[in-house]
Amino acid sequence: MSTPSGSPERPMAAIAPMDHYERLGVERTATEVEITKAYKKLALRYHPDRNLGDAAAAEVFKEISTAYTVLLDPNKRRHYDLSMASPDAANHLESIDLANMGQLGRVFGAMAGKMGIPIPTNIAQETLTKAQEICQLEPGLCEDNPHLLPLKLGVSYSGNVNRQQGAFFFLRVSAEVADMGLALRCASHNKSRFKLVVFDAKGGVRYQEESAKSSRSDKYTTCTLFFTPFEVGSLADRMPLPNPEEELPPVFNRLDTFHMTRRKLERGDHLVCVYGDNFLRGASFALSAAAIPPAAALEAQGRLREADAAILQQRSELRAFQMEYLQARKLWLETQERLAAHTENTAAAVQEREAAIDALVGLSLDACAPPQRSERSVDVQRLMKARERASGNGNGNSNGSAAAADGGGEGGDFSWDTLGKSLGFWGKKSSSSASS
C-alpha cells in the first residue's frame, strides 16, 4: 500500500483489525486531550485533500476518523475496551441510554438485573456536562467548589445518589502517593448498581468501572480502581448475547472481559464521581481512597498478582477447553440422537414381535376352535358357578328349584352337555329341556 510522505514507519496495514488505539498511536490509558491531539496530527497527514487520488490514504483517513469517534465518546470507548478483551466481541450487549428509556423499559431492565443479567448502560449526558462545568468554570476543580465533596485518604464516605446522576468528589494526590499507588473502592450493601468514574482536568472521562456482584457474598456490589506502578487485572460484569448454535455454559464467558492494565493518577487534583446506575431507584454507596504503601503491603500485592496470573491462566485454559467441550457436546448430541433412534427402533421391534405372536396364536386358535362361533368363548365365572351348583346336586344338597335351573329336573340324571347348553356356553336349550 502506498503511503503519503511523512507516514509512520510501520504501515497501517500491519495494525490488527479494529484496534483504534494503535490506529491513532496512543496508549489505552490516553486522555481525551491526547486522543484529540493524535487524531488531528494523523488527519492532517492523511486528509484526502492532501492526497488526491490516493485510495490508500483515503482508507486510512476513514479508519482514524472511526477510531477518533469511538474513543472520544466515553460510553462507546468503555464498550469498545470491554469488547476488545473478549474474543466474542460482537456478541456483547451494547450500552443503552437510560435517559431515552421509558418507565416500562426501566422495569424490564430492573427485572433482568434481578435475574442476574447485567445490562450495560451509558453515563447520562447531564452528568458528563456537569463534570466539564466543574472543571472548566469558576471556581474550578478545588476544595472550595460547592459542587464537590472532599475525598480524604483512609476515610469512608457513605451516601446516596439519584439514578442517572453523579455524586462528585475532590481528590488531591501528592507526589508520594502518586509514586506509591492508590486504590479507589466503592461498595453498596443494598446491591445498588453504580459506576466509579475518574475525570481528567478538562472534565473528560479518563477511567470508569462498573459495579459487580461480589463473588463471595450476594448481599453487596463492589468496584475498585487501582492506580499502581504495576499492572492490575480488571474484570467487568458483562454477559454476552447467547449463541443458539453453541449454547456454551456461562463459565466460558465469565472471564472474557478480564484484562491487565496499568493506570496512573498524576500528582495534583482529580475529579471522582459515583454515578447511580439503577433503573428505578437511587443508589447507596460507601466510597474510600487509600494509598498503597510499597513495603507494608508487599504480601498483599503479591497475593493480588498471583490471583491475576491465576485468572489469566484459567481464561487461557477455558478457551482451550472450549473447543474440546464443543466437540464433546456435538458427539453427545449425536449420541443422544442415536439413543433416541435405538429407543424408537427397540420399541418398534418389541411391538412387531407382539403382533407376530398375536397373529400366530390367532391362526392356531382358528384352526382348532369349535365350528360354532358361540362355542369359542366361555365366561369363566358363569362356568364356575355352574360347576358349583352341579357339584351340590350330585351330593343331594340341592333343592328342586336348583335342579330345575340346572335343567335336570328333580331326581333326573345330570348331563354336562345339558348344563352347558342351558347356560348358553354352546348351542341352545332344547325344547325338551325347556318343557321339562
UniProtKB/TrEMBL annotation:
One Pfam family this sequence matches: DnaJ
Name of the featured protein: Heat shock protein 40 like protein/ DnaJ domain-containing protein
PANTHER family assigned: DNAJ DOMAIN (PROKARYOTIC HEAT SHOCK PROTEIN), J DOMAIN-CONTAINING PROTEIN
Keywords: Stress response
Keyword Lyase: no
Record-linked CDD domains: DnaJ
InterPro entries registered for this protein in UniProt: DnaJ_domain, J_dom_sf, Plant_DnaJ_domain
Source species, domain of life: Eukaryota
Domain J: 19-84
Positions with biased composition (Low complexity): 396-405
Region of interest (Disordered), ranges: 389-413
